[in-house]
Design a protein that fits this description.
The complex is a heterodimer of chains A (221) and B (79).
Chain A lengths: L4 E5 L5 H13 L6 H6 L3 H13 L12 E6 L2 E10 L8 H12 L2 H9 L16 E8 L8 H16 L5 E7 L3 H9 L3 E7 L5 H4 L4 E8 L2
Parallel strand pairs in A: 4-5
Antiparallel strand pairs in A: 1-2, 2-3, 3-4, 5-7, 6-7
Chain B lengths: L2 H16 L20 H15 L5 H4 L5 H11 L1
Helix pairs in contact in B: 1-2, 1-4
Classes of the chains: A alpha+beta (221), B mainly alpha (79).
């Protein structure tokens, strides 16, 4: 029954769907989009900027097209998950790669605005551990939920990453702590809560979906 | 421009953006190892360096920078 869904690497024509996935995951079940509020850029413009990020040739972060796997049904993308091995291809962290992309694509004046807002998110920016598989932006279109597509995509990321790096020992995912449905999905696929990060800024909830982020981890055998 | 002059100007920018006059130069340091050098300050530092040296970094060049020495070498190649 699963065979009607094709699991494959993302291609340029998936970009609109991937942007939908990034926006939905960033909102974490709320209407607050941190990229929009922190940079003071309206959501439609953020979508265009994310398309530009995905168009750039950049590997190893959550805004890289080649980080994404897609579940396709009847020729259209219905679920997406990003994944990459942190620091595997270079000494550069995914955070720096993502930051370079933003520097390159986002308007400079908005970067200055975000810099002035930096205290809002700093306590819940979780460092990514080297040589672990990082999972981000797990998204399934509403109509296709309950079909275990997220799990299949995560497992495919694990299989691909193990083939590339047989010593892979851990998979990690970061989630806003308000997102109970996402946490349930991760628990179902073997992730356990590791650390909770809480923002010390009273402004955080004005800008972000929640003031706590949870690091979850799956240890591979 | 001589390397020492580039280092001096770069250090001034890093200290200004990170609001920390005590930062000392060590070419082997990575961004992650410098206290306060987070994502947003990274973008401001890169922008200030582009303004100061009147250069433009390419994305591929930025993604190859693994420490301060490599940043200086890149600037030197452009000025």
């Amino acid at each position: 029954m699963n065979d009607e869904y094709l699991i494959r690497s993302a291609v340029v024509t998936d970009n609109i769907f991937i942007v939908e996935a990034i926006i939905a995951a960033e909102k974490s079940g709320t209407e607050k989009l941190g990229l929009s509020t922190l940079f003071n850029i309206p959501e439609p413009e953020i979508k265009k900027l994310l398309m530009c990020c995905l168009d750039e040739e950049s590997s190893g972060c959550e805004f890289s097209l080649n980080s994404f796997l897609i579940a396709e049904y009847s020729g259209k993308p219905v679920a997406a998950v990003a994944g990459w091995i942190e620091n595997f291809d270079s000494n550069i962290s995914s955070r720096t790669i993502k930051t370079n992309l933003i520097h390159f694509v986002f308007p400079k004046e908005n970067i200055l605005i975000a810099h002035s807002n930096s205290d809002i998110a700093k306590d819940i920016l979780i460092s990514r551990e080297k040589n672990t598989l990082q999972i981000e932006y797990v998204y399934t279109h509403n109509e296709y939920r309950g079909k275990e597509l997220a799990g299949r995509l995560i497992n495919k990321h694990i299989a691909i990453s193990r083939a590339k790096y047989p010593g892979l020992a851990k998979v990690q995912v970061q989630v806003f702590n308000n997102n109970q449905s996402a946490k349930k999905v991760y628990e179902k696929y073997g992730f356990k809560p590791i650390s909770l990060y809480t923002s010390g800024s009273k402004e955080t909830l004005k800008y972000l979906p929640y003031h706590e982020k949870l690091l979850m981890e799956k240890v591979l055998k | 421009m001589e390397k020492n002059a580039i280092v001096e100007k770069t250090l001034i920018i890093i200290r200004q953006v990170l609001k920390n006059e005590k930062i000392e130069w060590n070419g082997e340091l990575t961004a992650e190892e410098i206290n306060g050098w987070d994502s947003l300050s990274h973008m401001i530092i890169i922008t200030e360096l582009e303004n100061e040296f009147k250069i433009k970094f390419k994305l591929k060049e930025l993604n190859k920078l693994d420490n301060l020495d490599s940043l200086i070498t890149l600037i030197q190649s452009k000025v």
